[in-house]
Design goal:
The protein has 257 residues and is an alpha/beta fold. The chain contains ten helices and ten strands. Helices cover 41% and strands 23% of the residues. The strands form two sheets. Strands 1, 2, 3, 4, 7, 8, 9 and 10 form an eight-stranded mixed β-sheet that branches. The longest helix has 13 residues. It comes from Thermus filiformis.
Length: 257
């Protein structure tokens, strides 16, 4: 498994704890950004990669100073709860339905993503869910609901794991899954899974945000946010591995409310 770039502080006063979604971790983006941030500021970062729901829970307990997440509804809830110092949208990409090249449910021919999910359910083709209250899992649940399907039974599996591990399980089981575009490109594509439904669709928009925690290491967290929103930070995000993420320059395209 790729070694995550994690720096632990020589001086505890400068430590910054970042809880991040596994999709960002698995893409390798932080390995590109954080060494430069430390070089520029002297602030070293300890990274904890978990699902978005868990990342926000960790931040709420002040066991992290910032959280990089992708679930607007949960982010809005955190803001309403009053523990978020600042919130900014950093980047976007898209969710994809990926699966075996044989495509037994004929997802490629589906007119829209909701019909693609209905086809998977009707044919009872294996589908692997994150099942971990991550941003990807919440999006998957939203899509099943809009499709009018209650997934369950032997064909519906839960990994309880991060995006990279979920893609590996989907490959092993010959199953479909919902993935963010970046982790598919860095993990799923190499395994032999195919992106079967890739059409532009507002339902599949995936927005990443950084939340700073009140009463935590606010100064260091602000420096990280400033770096990520700077022209240099946004340029590096947009250029990473040929454009796996599109920078948002702090402007949200999905409402956080």
């Amino acid at each position: 498994m790729r070694l995550l770039w994690v720096l632990l502080l020589l001086s505890p006063a400068l430590a910054l704890r970042l809880a991040t979604t596994t999709s960002v971790y698995d893409s390798g983006l932080l390995d590109d950004l954080l060494p430069l941030f430390t070089q520029r500021t002297g602030v070293r970062v300890e990274v904890l990669a978990v699902g978005t729901g868990q990342a926000l829970a960790i931040a709420k307990r002040k066991d992290a100073d910032a959280a990089l997440v992708h679930a607007p509804a949960l982010e809005a809830q955190a803001i309403r709860e009053g523990w978020v110092l600042e919130h900014a949208c950093l980047a976007k990409n898209a969710f994809l339905l990926v699966g075996p090249p044989q495509d037994p449910a004929r997802v490629r021919q589906a007119p829209d993503v909701l019909e693609a999910l209905r086809r998977i359910a009707r044919t009872q083709s294996p589908f692997v869910s994150r099942g971990d209250r991550s941003g990807t899992h919440l999006k998957e649940q939203e899509l099943w609901q809009k499709a009018g399907v209650r997934p369950g039974g032997a064909w519906y599996l839960e990994s309880g794991a991060g995006m990279g591990q979920t893609l590996r399980l989907a490959w092993e089981k010959g199953a479909y899954t919902l993935s963010d575009g970046a982790t598919y490109q860095t993990v799923g594509k190499k395994l032999g899974l195919e992106a079967l439904y890739t059409r532009e669709d507002p339902l599949l928009l995936n927005q990443y945000s950084l939340l700073l925690v009140k009463g935590a290491k606010e100064e260091e967290a602000r420096r990280l946010l400033d770096f990520l929103l700077s022209p240099e930070g946004q340029r590096r995000i947009g250029a990473f591995r040929g454009g796996l993420f599109q920078p948002l320059f702090g402007r949200c395209v999905l409402p956080v409310r």
